[in-house]
Amino acid sequence: MPTYYDLTQEVLAHQFSPAQYTTYVEDRLNQSLQYVCAQTDFEQINTFVSITVPASTGSFTLPTDFNRVQYLERQDGNRWVPLIQVPAARFDKLAAADGEPTHYSVRPNNVVALHPVFSSEVVVGLSYYRNPPLLDSALDVPIIPEQYHYMLVHHALKFCYERENDYTSAQYHLGQFQEALMKCRGEVHNAWNPSSQPRRIGDDMTDLADVLQGL
Q1: Burial label, 82 (beta-carbon count in 10 A; 0-12, 13-18, 19+)
Q2: Which residues are 125's β-sheet partners?
Q3: 3-class secondary structure, 76
Q4: E strands of 66-213, at which residues?
Q5: What is the chain's mean pLDDT, rounded?
Q6: Element spanning 50, H or E
Q7: Is 97 helix (H, G, I), strand (E, B) or coil?
Q8: The whole model's pTM is what?
Q9: How many Å apart are CA 174 and CA 162, to the nearest integer?
Q10: Does residue 116 have a cis peptide bond before it, meaning omega lies within 30 degrees of 0?
């Protein structure tokens, strides 16, 4: 399975100077990994946690490795009740109500607000996609399936060629990356998670677009 070192060398093999480009390529590979994981519902980065929300607080902080929500539900005895996610602007206009939470919104600083605010303790179950572990040592392997590692190389090459002002080659590798990413998202979505809808970071349901910088 290709390692961090292998992927770096594959990019450098396109006649980029190791002295000038090794660190740059390593950074671009990690940036590419974050971007691909932000766009794709990989099972490898899906996590479920149970969170107890104290009475009358109406909010909780997301895990530190949070990337985006898959779903949120509230425990009601022996069953789980799905909560409805709404954009922040619409959430703020929800009418005052009593009772257990039915809606939620992801707020700035990775805080989730619940509506209505319940007077008793609430247990919620959060299924979310986490940020991928960054590649660090030479033997590290990207968390995504091996058949998609080549996308990271194309994306890194796009940046390298731009740095050399070779925009024709940069556009070629960007096109290869975008085509592969679209195919990957469809394959992964259909393979393990047919009931959910693919979502992108930065749409009107989330507010975590910083990982998209540089595409």
Answers
A1: exposed
A2: 50, 73
A3: strand
A4: 66-76, 79-82, 84-85, 103-107, 111-115, 122-130
A5: 89
A6: strand 46-53
A7: coil
A8: 0.81
A9: 10
A10: yes
* Burial of residue 114, with CB atoms counted within 10 A of its CB: 0-12 exposed, 13-18 middle, 19 or more buried: buried
Query: In angstroms, what CA-CA distances link 94 with 73, 83, 97?
Result: 19, 14, 9
**Of residues 92 and 84, which shows the higher confidence score?**
84
Amino acid at site 215: L
Encoding tokens for residue 41?
A: 């519902």
Stretch 67-73: mean pLDDT, rounded? 94
Cβ atoms of 215 and 35 closer than 8 Å: yes
Name the CA radius of gyration of the chain, rounded.
Answer: 20
Map tokens 């080549």 to a residue: 150
Amino acid at 44: Q
Helices (H), the chain: 4-12, 18-39, 88-91, 149-163, 167-192
- The domain ranges of the chain are 4-43+136-212, 45-130
